[in-house]
């Protein structure tokens, strides 16, 4: 195959696999290491060790001393939930694309992880690790595993010796290091006639075998380490969340070249936030141990049921799949586990409503679950028929799920609770990213007796939830040695005035600060001769032009002599008012200044009209009658407040009933909360409100015939119930065909200065040059633009930078800009502000352009904002551009995969323009 330049391979893989920041950094470090040691069968291991030690021995996020094996082997310690399997896919892609290796051996520590890896390496898997990698698109790697490597079971000699492409072997460690009955060697070391040797010997003789070890801390034992050494790989790549050996005398790894810990992942938003919960104003010492455990279990269930409905509500509000949560109870031993299960399934625990909805996982012999039981745990994400999992001590590797939100540790110390082995099982985000909704983004530990100890331990920094990160000061560190630098980026027209001020001040012998930044190809300078002319120009821009934007129909009117004369008179009057003297420029000189300012303002400004949209008549809406979906509602009586505190931020939440007296009827608890929503008018919607509240009351009355318990459920959970009911009401909402009035407030707006953080070395960079590490792109201020309304721009992604390159090169583009905060605001259907990536003016039209990851193109939030922007473009075209003779507006939603070197703006318009909904178009009238 044709090899790819290593640096280019890193860039391509990072983009195609949408690698997260720590994954991309790990891949970059692998590139460094391959360059340093050039791994092969002939590699001088000691020389390679010294080379790696020199680079990665003293970094704050590495800990390298030696390989700890007979071959070069380095460890990448990434926190649980960040994506170690995808990282292994990136490693394999890189080594294959640069021609370093086509043979790989992926080692799993147990059957659970082995089966997960087999699934993730299949092209038909939704989590396929090579999706988007061009090298594997038409020639997928051959997957050899414990089931198909033997003669007659699938793999043939021609598959190994006659094919082109990558070969990936995936095996469980037990398949290569375990002795079988009678002292015989493992099956993998027995002769296979189709290759004339054992499969193990065949692997060990390959001159490019790379070994990847998932959960690497499981392979430091003598048997595993010996078997791995016999494979004789040219390079070992270890991934783990816990870089230390197992056992009572665990030792930290000495071959870590990159470490990205759980606190980093929490701060960067890649995993859930751990929180601790307790009962408000409760003294755990006031009850005995058995009663305390029962209270913790009951409060855990209360929180679990709260989470269950909140997750369903979120899914309905955002049009995503419903996540079915469960609660994990960690017990001390198998006897304790059986006692807890008996209690949970008894009538004493919420009248036995959780009988049959509990899984008990442990091995009575070892205290660790068998692979078969671990597989049952893996399936819990797909079900919804399990509310509680009871487990003894810690869960082993390979089991981390996205639907665990509540943990109840019984008889555990604070330090045991705050370990990655405990918390890490439930930190994976259900939707792959933070949602901004606390319940969805949070993993809560119910720990009445350890609440204060956990808070203090987190404050001290226990290694999992530390608040204080290591900060290095100086070159290459987190904080530059120099003082912070605030860079102001004026618009081009403003920068031209600054240059004129500097030039005139220099002529008159006055000290003047130079303007910030430089024009790449300076526009023709203003022809001002004296300070009074510059002062008048500034008055025109800052005082007169904002008012004039509301008086003219189009920015083109600035070329009208009558408009220029009007601006001149207004500017002279404003100047006189400011100075208290008659201006020292004549009317003829003033007219020349204004004419020049107007001409340049028109040439350097994208005119964005300011629009106001109001309903022409009272908006009519209501709610159709429907049956509530209450299947997952299982709230329990709550007479005490639950207090939840996020460990990292110390933010507190209260899960409790509202203060107040008894309602006259049960439905009133819910109706009172529903009336808080602005969309709900009691006089108009009373009938539907009481109908829905009646359905909720009937649902819980069947569970709680006792009126006092029924009242506790409704009073204690009225607010989350109302939120869940209203989410369903919105799905049955009708609106009258109200038309809207569009008022054009201004034909254009001023381009306000933008401010950036310019701290750090070499912050300024030409926009055609990508950062060495794409994850650093927000650190740079890019310059060198010819068509930008601003000469300094910050980008949020390299895709945005590439779009700017396309705009600069396209001959049809006249001007473009990245709007600053509050510069160009669009409101979506939920009233949220949307600020697009780019505004572009071509020779024939104006465009709003948004770039997105390909994976986000169907995200409901992205589509809601796109609909709002497309509607705004329609309104701006119909109710301003057509009337004033200005250019029409369009909206583009462009996937990152389309932002290519050979792309043109016309091509992007043809493929990615999004039009406003036809039904909405007809409801707008010009004022």
Keywords for this structure?
about 950 residues, alpha/beta, Rossmann fold, 5 domains, eight-stranded mixed beta sheet, 28 helices, about 35% helix, about 15% strand, globular
Mean pLDDT: 82
- For the record, what is the CATH homologous superfamily label of the largest domain? P-loop containing nucleotide triphosphate hydrolases
How much strand content do the residues show?
15-25%
Corresponding CATH architecture of the largest domain:
3-Layer(aba) Sandwich
Specify the overall morphology.
globular
Number of domains: 5
Rg, rounded, reads 33 Å
Task: Please describe what this structure looks like.
This protein has five domains: 6-260, P-loop containing nucleotide triphosphate hydrolases (Rossmann fold), CATH 3.40.50.300; 269-460, P-loop containing nucleotide triphosphate hydrolases (Rossmann fold, 3-Layer(aba) Sandwich); 492-604, no CATH class; 621-636 and 655-732, no CATH class; 762-926, Trna Endonuclease, Chain: A, domain 1 (3-Layer(aba) Sandwich). It is globular, with a radius of gyration of 33 Å. The longest helix is centred in the N-terminal third of the chain and has 30 residues, at 289-318. With 927 residues, the chain is of the alpha/beta class. Strands 1-10-2-9-8-3-5-4 form an eight-stranded mixed sheet. It has an eight-stranded mixed sheet with strand order 13-14-12-15-16-11-20-21, with helices on both faces. A five-stranded mixed sheet has the order 27-30-31-32-33. Helix 2 runs parallel beside helix 4, helix 18 (531-548) crosses helix 20 and helix 21 packs across helix 24 (718-730). The chain starts with 5 loop residues before the first helix and ends with a strand. The protein is 36% helix and 17% strand. It is built from 28 helices and 34 strands.
């Amino acid at each position: 195959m044709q090899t790819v330049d290593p640096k280019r391979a890193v860039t391509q893989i990072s983009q195609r696999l949408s690698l997260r920041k720590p994954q991309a950094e790990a891949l970059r470090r692998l590139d460094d290491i391959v360059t340093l040691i050039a791994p092969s069968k002939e590699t001088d291991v000691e020389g390679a060790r010294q080379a790696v030690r020199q680079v990665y021995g003293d970094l704050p996020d590495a800990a390298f001393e030696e390989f700890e094996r007979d071959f070069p082997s380095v460890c990448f310690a990434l926190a649980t939930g960040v994506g170690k399997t995808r990282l292994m896919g990136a490693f394999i892609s890189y080594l294959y694309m640069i021609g370093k290796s086509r043979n790989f051996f992926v080692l799993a520590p147990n059957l659970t992880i082995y089966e997960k890896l087999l699934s993730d390496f299949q092209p038909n898997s939704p989590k396929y690790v090579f999706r988007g990698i061009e090298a594997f698109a038409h020639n997928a790697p051959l997957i050899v595993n414990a089931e198909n490597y033997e003669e007659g079971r699938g793999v043939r000699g021609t598959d190994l010796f006659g094919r082109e492409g990558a070969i990936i072997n995936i095996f469980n460690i037990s398949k290569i290091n375990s002795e079988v009955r009678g002292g015989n060697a493992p099956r993998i070391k027995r002769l296979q006639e189709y290759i004339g040797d054992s499969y193990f010997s065949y692997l060990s003789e390959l001159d490019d075998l790379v070994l990847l070890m998932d959960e690497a801390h499981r392979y430091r034992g003598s048997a595993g380490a010996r078997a791995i050494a016999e494979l004789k790989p040219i390079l070992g790549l270890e991934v783990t969340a816990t870089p230390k050996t197992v056992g009572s005398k665990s030792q930290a790894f000495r071959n870590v070249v990159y470490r990205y810990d759980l606190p980093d992942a929490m701060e960067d938003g890649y995993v859930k936030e751990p929180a601790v919960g307790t009962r408000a104003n409760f003294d755990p010492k006031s009850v005995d141990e058995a009663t305390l455990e029962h209270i913790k279990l009951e409060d855990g269930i209360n929180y679990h049921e709260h989470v269950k409905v909140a997750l369903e509500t979120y899914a309905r509000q955002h049009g995503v799949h419903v996540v079915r949560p469960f609660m994990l109870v960690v017990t001390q031993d198998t006897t304790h586990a059986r006692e807890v299960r008996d209690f949970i399934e008894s009538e004493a625990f919420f009248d036995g409503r959780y009988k049959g909805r509990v899984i008990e996982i442990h091995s009575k012999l070892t205290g660790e679950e068998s692979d078969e039981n671990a597989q049952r745990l893996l399936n819990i994400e797909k079900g919804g028929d399990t509310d509680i999992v009871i487990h003894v001590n810690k869960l082993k590797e390979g089991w981390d799920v996205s639907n665990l939100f509540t943990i109840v540790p019984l008889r555990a110390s604070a330090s045991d609770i705050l370990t990655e082995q405990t918390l890490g099982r439930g930190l994976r985000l259900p939707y792959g990213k933070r949602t901004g909704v606390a319940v969805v983004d949070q993993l809560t530990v119910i720990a009445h007796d350890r609440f204060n100890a956990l808070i203090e331990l987190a404050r001290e920094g226990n290694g999992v939830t530390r608040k204080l990160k290591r900060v290095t000061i100086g070159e290459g560190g987190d904080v530059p040695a120099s003082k912070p630098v605030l860079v102001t980026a004026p618009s081009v027209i403003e920068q031209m005035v600054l240059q004129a001020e500097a030039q005139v001040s220099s002529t008159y012998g006055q000290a003047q600060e130079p303007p910030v930044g430089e024009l790449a190809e300076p526009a023709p300078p203003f022809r001002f001769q004296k300070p009074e002319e510059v002062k008048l120009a500034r008055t025109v821009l800052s005082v007169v032009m904002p008012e004039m934007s509301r008086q003219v129909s189009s920015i083109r009117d600035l070329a009208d002599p009558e408009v220029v004369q009007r601006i001149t008179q207004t500017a002279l009057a404003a100047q006189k008012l400011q100075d208290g003297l008659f201006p020292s420029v004549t009317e003829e000189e003033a007219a020349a200044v204004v004419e020049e300012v107007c001409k340049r303002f028109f040439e350097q400004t994208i005119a964005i009209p300011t629009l106001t949209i109001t309903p022409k008549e009272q908006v009519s809406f209501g709610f159709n009658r429907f049956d509530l979906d209450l299947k997952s509602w299982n709230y329990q009586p709550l007479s005490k407040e639950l207090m939840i505190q996020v460990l990292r931020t110390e933010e507190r939440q209260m899960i409790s009933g509202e203060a107040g007296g008894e309602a006259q009827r049960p439905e009133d608890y819910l109706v009172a909360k529903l009336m808080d929503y602005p969309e709900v008018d009691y006089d108009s919607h009373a009938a539907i409100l009481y109908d829905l509240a009646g359905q909720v009351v009937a649902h819980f009355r069947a569970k709680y015939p006792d009126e006092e318990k029924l009242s506790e459920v409704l009073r204690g959970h009225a607010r989350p119930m109302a939120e869940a009911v209203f989410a369903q009401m919105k799905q049955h909402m009708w609106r009258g065909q109200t038309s809207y009035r569009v008022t054009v407030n201004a034909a254009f707006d001023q381009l306000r200065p933008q401010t950036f953080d310019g701290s750090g070395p070499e912050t300024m960079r030409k926009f055609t040059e990508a950062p060495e590490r794409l994850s650093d792109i927000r650190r740079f201020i890019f310059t060198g633009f010819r068509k930008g309304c601003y000469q300094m721009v910050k980008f949020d992604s390299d895709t945005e930078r590439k779009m700017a390159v396309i705009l600069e090169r396209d001959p049809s583009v006249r001007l473009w800009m990245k709007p600053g905060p509050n510069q160009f605001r669009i409101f979506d259907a939920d009233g949220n502000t949307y600020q697009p990536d780019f505004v572009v003016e071509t020779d024939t039209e104006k465009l709003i352009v948004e770039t997105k990851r390909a994976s986000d193109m169907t995200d409901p939030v992205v589509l809601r904002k796109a609909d709002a922007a497309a509607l705004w473009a329609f309104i701006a075209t119909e109710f301003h551009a057509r009337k004033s003779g200005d250019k029409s507006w369009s909206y583009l939603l462009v996937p990152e995969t389309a932002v290519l070197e050979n792309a043109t703006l016309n091509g992007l318009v043809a493929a990615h323009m999004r039009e406003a909904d036809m039904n909405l178009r007809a409801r707008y009238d010009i004022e």
